[in-house]
Amino acid sequence: MLTKSHASKQAPKPREGAGKDGAGPAAPVAGSHEAAHDGHHRNPVMPLRTDWFDDVHVNLSATERRTATLTTRRSVKKAYQAAWLVKALTCIDLTTLAGDDTEGRVRRLALKARRPLRDDIVAALGLEDDPPKVGAVCVYPTMVAAAVKALDGSGIPVASVATGFPSGLTPLPQRLDEIRYAVDMGAAEIDIVITRAHVLTGQWQALHDEVAAMREACGAAHLKAILGTGDLRTLGNVYKASMVAMMAGADFIKTSTGKEEVNATLPVSLTMVRALRDYGERTGERIGFKPAGGLKTAKDALAWLTLMKEELGDRWLQPDLFRIGASSLLGDIERQLEHYVTGRYASAAHHALA
């Protein structure tokens, strides 16, 4: 039998130096910041401090060596692996961002978000008393109202991409209006895209001001800043863009739109995780992380969970601080969990579509 506590208790130990409980940076003082929709404290805007990253250099080969060990040095098997996959499921932003999206597709996605696993699998895992559900449903702004209606009473927030997704190259007033529209429709989280040109040309104040304006437009909704890391060229740029986005009030930093030629990779993710760890050590703020784009298999989910566990500890295995942007990933997780409980792999036709 499987319980929700297994995923943290039976996971690999956190890295050395993560703190006595492996929880990473200290929690903000209760009541010191404005609260978000779920009671989680918001990351306040602070002035740009380029001296926090001017002299930072990221060693590509060392980063690649570190991430190469994540899936080879240790692994989780059998009941432990099943527990980790249930944990990954609860951190998914179940996503549809297609040009042919319809309200019917969004309603179907919401049903899958509410019941991501078949009842017989839930029962076999011993989770009937508290069935797992995904972390959020992510859609375009015009689909927010349909998603909010379909998820009513579930406790699952609706996330909306905005700001000229995926390129982010529409005029700033228009991008801010798009945020406000999505929030007015009921979006509790906004996934914005930054202007990559600001990073490529080192215009850090312009990037800071842009993200801060988007943060203000979000109101009480969480802001997840998509860096479009596949377009940023160097890990140094990824680190600097991460720091600036957090200084400008981003509650999460996110790798990709899923539309770039290169999306989430472990070296990029390690760089961003180290940036948010450094930011937390300086400010005491806990910032969330969301890899997105290219995460399709249960094996991918385990690799990113291991990264979070080893670099930041158990606290970053919770959906308020870790999300996976994905659409097809859930299907493979469900398939692997069915194999765990039955010993057989089922065809995709045996699982409801996401």
From TrEMBL:
The listed locations are: Cytoplasmic granule
Specify the pathway: Carbohydrate degradation; 2-deoxy-D-ribose 1-phosphate degradation; D-glyceraldehyde 3-phosphate and acetaldehyde from 2-deoxy-alpha-D-ribose 1-phosphate: step 2/2
Enzyme Commission identifier(s): 4.1.2.4
Alphabetical GO CC annotations of the entry are: cytoplasm
Checking InterPro entries in the record gives:
Aldolase_TIM, DeoC, DeoC/FbaB/LacD_aldolase
Q: Which reaction does it catalyse?
A: 2-deoxy-D-ribose 5-phosphate = D-glyceraldehyde 3-phosphate + acetaldehyde
Q: What CDD domains does this protein's entry cite?
A: DeoC
Q: What class of enzyme is it?
A: lyase
> SMART domains of this UniProt entry?
DeoC (SM01133)
Q: What Pfam family is a match for this entry? A: DeoC
**What's in the keyword line of the UniProt record?**
Cytoplasm, Lyase, Schiff base
Where in this protein does the record put region Disordered?
Answer: 1-44
User: GO biological process annotations for this chain's record?
Assistant: carbohydrate catabolic process; deoxyribonucleotide catabolic process
Q: Name one GO molecular function term.
A: deoxyribose-phosphate aldolase activity
Q: Which family does it belong to?
A: Belongs to the DeoC/FbaB aldolase family. DeoC type 2 subfamily.
Q: Which NCBIfam families match?
A: deoC (TIGR00126)
Query: Could you identify this protein by its name?
Result: Deoxyribose-phosphate aldolase
Q: Which organism is it from?
A: Pseudoxanthobacter soli DSM 19599
